[in-house]
Write a structure and sequence with these properties.
By secondary structure, this protein is mostly beta strands. 11% of the residues lie in helices and 36% in strands. A hairpin with a 4-residue loop joins strand 50 and strand 51. Bound molecules: beta-D-galactopyranose. Beta-D-galactopyranose (GAL) binds at residues 81, 178-179, 337, 409-410, 450, 490, 493, 521, 554, 557, 950.
């Protein structure tokens, strides 16, 4: 017989799963300081801690509960993506199976009603056995699901001893191969519950909304015994549970308007608090609808992660996640890939997010055995799989926010999913089901994919996709699949710098009624906070704990950094999915405001405008927008600001939509959407100031050890600029390399970075062919080429003195075989003294932007320090690029001296205290040591970011293919002189 931690049983001695709810009956939190002892193997773990005698010494120490013991110095966390960290030998576990014994002594309050008491574990990873006062309660598997035991018979007045043995690995682990850290322990709350005589055991709230009549129907099923329902706001008082109440007018629940009605369910000894949201979910005519209106899910996949505590999340952290999501226009969350802490779902109800609740099932590691023995298709695993589905549905069924049940993730296909689907449809016919990996979709109400390229989403949107091989020979199944709504349950892999193409995806979703939207992979970087020997903080990833095998930094793929700092990707997402689209035809004096909410009109927003002249605000006002209904639009007169007589520079009109009043998730004034438009200046053409007389051409002159041209001092042999006036500098010289992003590195053979390296772009040599002094110019002809290859970029630098500075025209011609290759970037690199650390620019900002991730950047005048320009991605890589810069100044704050660069018309700006090579070599930001230079990249173009770390690379229009190119820059020093090197 197999031991309980290796058998096919989901558990023993547990109570039937039921809804999570709060009541005024007694509730004793058993969270706190427990005693803990870790044994390397089950056989080494004596069962000597179950009784009254308090263990001392012998490896016992204190451990907080909830927690993961590996984050408290007992063993190490392990990160794997698909591979099991133990042999694929189901249902067995290695003999060395770390076993954590936990023990708590607690006092029962004197007033406690012991009969019927229930001991509830919200989550224990991965398998446990519990004893109360030496008496065994039972066992359970299913890490992210609750388990309850009858505690009454074992409870004593006064002092009680709870003993819990937790096994790191179990047969259940075979169902828990999600791409995340393996983190054992009692990681969610432990609670003792009073269940007074005659109390309700379970309840099921059915609250529907008829959008044609505005009517709500409400029934709360409790089974026996009788309970009475009260919902004061609806005039329902002490109505027997089980009866259906019809309410003529209710306000429906939606993620945009999360209207909840407080209710109460009463039995003689207990009141249970209810929060009721009326809504009806339906898949109709191939669309996912709620309350009669189609939904477009602007979602994210959320794992539970805290950089210090793993999957132990406190209520503030959960709230912070929801607030951050709401503030970034996210309206949906897939609880990838397990049911979250129940409090998170309460927050989704309260603050408004559509939820796909996903079952704690993933058997991805069987892919390495060609899916032989996959539990999903083996009847022996049916009870364990069904148990998980039941525990999820029963626990979470009363949340209005949950609109879809997901059967699990990436477990291939098999009969057991049929069993799960059938049970769920019977138990809760009110919600559609999702499962992505069975490509027949027979158990799913959605056609669902991961990481499909934009073009494929567009094709699907037009119903033009090919039938998957799995349904190609089954006309009935294929006909069913064809009319399912389409969900992209994962897309836009937010690993490192990226993802690109968010706006393109969103436009594709919006264009087709068939698309129910998608969920970005993923919400948060799973990095653990650690410190270097000298006390600097960084975030660890796979391998950093000596864990092996490991998935490296593949778990660092979130829209927020491990400490929940929003990444540029999150800001881009916010812009791409904004619920209000403002466009303008200023020539015709019109602005169009489109409401992209699914349920809400625009009356909660206030629209303002401002006019900036070269980044300086010169006028502003309010824009009167009528109350536009969900999905509708309005065309209104554009603001007509008085334009400055003689503008300093470019005029830009910005329209902003902000919250008119406080909402529970953000304060009044919070910006929801914005748009920017260049404003033509009527006078500029007519009364443009006469162009300044061109400065008289200056001829280059030989100097002691170089060549002088205007303010510029050049090396006569290399042709490189060495100084501009008093400012010492190196360069500029052509540069095409960037420290590959995770998306450049890509997954598998499809890697831009590999191609770039193969082509030698990481090791370009510069050969000066000639340095020619013309009557009005200095011409430097070079050949920039990789070691070992014949291909090259012929690069000519033409320098002219332009008044108080220099003008540079760079002309690049690819030579030799470049077919099919792209470049990481093309531009020039120069170096300035480290003191030039203040940056001011007019262009896009304030944040970083790349060709396929620049919607969130607006044109303006910005300042930052060089340090502040860096995005501290957990794994150092290309970052910090500011796009469409018209001019930039890098100055020494002590003196105000420095360099001004102007583009003709634009350039991309990156400035940092380390080189691309330093960035590339670093494993953590703490590896980066500032050099005594500021390295300034002035780029003509970058390759897009794409999302090839798991998914497609940049769109064709964002691939940077080598071509003959000319670009122009102007340089001048800013007085007073900057510090010399
Ligand atoms: C998906 C999987 C996720 C994650 C992602 C890549 O295939 O469902 O759990 O592994 O790829 O980060």
């Amino acid at each position: 017989m197999l031991p309980y931690y290796e058998d096919y049983e989901p558990g023993t001695g547990r109570r039937a799963p039921r809804a999570a709810f709060t009541s005024d009956a007694g509730r004793l939190s058993l969270n706190g300081h427990w005693l803990f002892r870790l044994s390397e193997a089950v056989a080494e773990a004596p069962l000597d801690f179950l009784h009254d005698h308090t263990p001392r010494g012998d490896g016992w120490s204190e451990l907080p509960v909830p927690s993961h013991w590996v984050l408290h110095g007992h063993g190490i966390p392990r990160y794997t993506n698909t591979a099991y960290p133990f042999p694929v030998d189901p249902p067995h576990t290695p003999t060395r199976n770390p076993t954590g014994d936990h023990r708590l002594e607690f006092e029962l309050p004197g007033t406690w009603r012991r009969d019927g008491s229930v001991l509830r574990f919200e989550g224990v990873d991965s398998c446990f056995r519990a004893w109360l006062n030496g008496r065994e309660l039972g066992t359970s598997k299913g890490s992210r699901l609750p388990a309850e035991f009858d505690a009454g018979p074992a409870l004593r007045p006064g002092r009680n001893v709870l003993a819990v043995r937790v096994h790191r690995w179990s047969s259940g682990s075979y169902l828990e191969d999600q791409d995340m850290w393996w983190l054992p322990g009692i990681f969610r709350d432990v609670t003792l519950l009073e269940r007074p005589a005659g109390c309700v055991d379970d309840l099921f709230v059915h609250a529907g909304y008829d959008h044609t009549t505005g009517r709500g129907t409400l029934r709360v099923d409790t089974g026996a015994p009788a309970a009475l329902l009260t919902v004061p706001e609806l005039g329902i008082t002490d109505r027997p549970a089980g009866e259906t109440a019809v309410i003529d007018r209710v306000e429906p629940w939606s993620a945009e308007t999360p209207r909840l009605y407080e209710g109460r369910l009463s039995t003689p000894h207990e009141h249970i608090a209810l929060r009721i949201g009326f809504r009806t979910v339906a898949v109709r005519e191939g669309r996912l609808t709620v309350n009669g209106r189609p939904l477009l899910l602007r979602g994210v996949n959320r794992h539970e992660h805290d950089p210090d505590h793993g999957r132990v999340l406190d209520p503030e952290t959960m709230r912070r996640d929801v607030l951050l999501m709401k503030r970034h226009n996210i309206n949906a969350v897939r609880t990838s890939h397990y049911p979250p802490h129940p409090a998170f779902l309460d927050l989704c109800d309260e603050l408004g997010l559509w939820v796909v609740d996903e079952c704690d099932i993933e058997t991805h590691g069987f892919i390495h055995a060609d899916w032989r023995g996959n539990p999903a298709d083996d009847p022996r695993w049916e009870p364990m799989m069904l148990d998980r589905m039941r525990r999820m549905v029963e626990r979470d069924k009363n949340h209005p926010s949950i609109v879809i049940w997901s059967l699990g993730n990436e477990s291939h296909h098999g009969r057991n999913f049929g069993v799960l689907a059938e049970w769920t449809r019977r138990r809760d016919p009110s919600r559609p089901l999702h499962y992505e990996r069975d490509r027949t979709y027979r158990h799913s109400d959605f056609y669902s994919l991961m990481y499909a390229p934009v073009a494929q989403v567009e094709r699907i949107g037009r119903h033009e996709e090919d039938a998957p091989p799995e349904t190609a020979d089954d006309p009935a199944l294929e006909a069913r699949r064809r009319v399912l709504p389409f969900l992209l349950c994962e897309y836009a892999h937010a690993m490192g710098n990226g993802p690109g193409s968010l706006a393109a995806y969103q436009r594709a979703f919006e264009q087709s009624p068939r698309c129910a939207g998608g969920f970005v992979w993923e919400w948060i970087d799973h990095g653990f906070r650690r410190r270097t020997a000298d006390g600097r903080t960084y975030f660890a990833y796979g391998g950093d704990f000596g864990d092996h095998p490991h998935g490296g930094n593949f778990c660092i793929d979130g829209l927020v950094l491990p400490d929940r700092t929003p990444s540029p990707g999150l800001l881009e997402l916010k812009k791409a999915i904004e619920p209000v689209a403002v466009t303008a035809a200023l020539g015709r004096g019109l602005v169009r405001v489109a409401n992209r909410y699914d349920h809400r009109d625009l009356s909660h927003l206030r629209f303002t405008w401002s006019l900036e002249d070269e980044g300086v605000r010169v006028a502003d006002g309010e824009l009167k927008v009528p109350c536009v209904a969900a999905g509708e639009e309005a065309v209104i007169p554009a603001p007509r600001p008085l334009l400055p007589e003689a503008p300093r520079g470019e005029l830009w009109l910005t329209v902003r939509a902000e919250l008119a009043a406080d909402e529970p998730w953000a304060g009044a004034g919070h910006e929801v959407a914005w748009a920017q438009f260049p404003v033509p200046h009527p006078h500029r053409v007519a009364a443009a100031p006469a162009p300044a007389p061109a400065p008289a051409p200056v001829a280059p002159r030989p100097s002691d050890d170089g060549i002088t041209l205007g303010d510029g001092d050049f090396d006569a042999r290399t042709g490189l600029l060495r100084a501009l006036g008093p400012l010492r500098l190196d360069g500029p010289a052509l540069d095409v390399w960037r420290a590959p992003t995770d998306n450049d590195r890509g997954m598998g053979p499809d890697s831009a970075a590999k191609d770039w390296r193969r082509a030698g772009l990481d090791r370009m040599d510069h050969r000066t062919v000639s340095v020619r002094q013309g009557p009005d110019r200095l011409e430097v002809e070079t050949r920039v080429a990789p070691a070992g290859h014949e291909r090259a970029l012929r690069t000519r630098y033409v320098w002219t003195a332009a008044g108080p500075g220099l003008r540079l025209v760079v002309h690049v011609v690819p030579e030799g075989p470049w077919d099919g290759l792209t470049l990481p970037r093309i531009g020039v690199l120069l170096a300035l003294p480290a003191a030039c650390e203040d940056v001011r620019w007019f262009g896009k900002g304030p944040g970083e932007a790349y060709p396929d991730s620049q919607e969130a950047a607006r044109v303006g005048l910005f300042t930052a320090t060089v340090a502040g320009l860096q995005t501290p991605y957990v794994v150092p890589q290309e970052n910090g690029h500011r796009a469409a810069v018209r001019w930039a100044e890098l100055t020494d704050p002590a003196t105000g001296g420095g360099l001004r660069v102007e583009g003709a018309p634009h350039f991309g700006l990156t400035a940092r205290r380390w080189t691309s090579q330093d960035l590339e070599a670093a494993r953590h930001p703490t590896d980066l040591v500032p050099r005594d230079r500021v390295f300034v990249h002035l780029d003509l173009a970058h390759q897009g970011l794409g999302s090839a770390s798991c998914g497609p690379g940049p769109l064709p229009e964002h691939r940077l293919e080598p071509a003959e190119t000319t670009f122009e820059l102007r340089f001048r020093t800013l007085a007073p002189p900057a510090a010399r090197r």
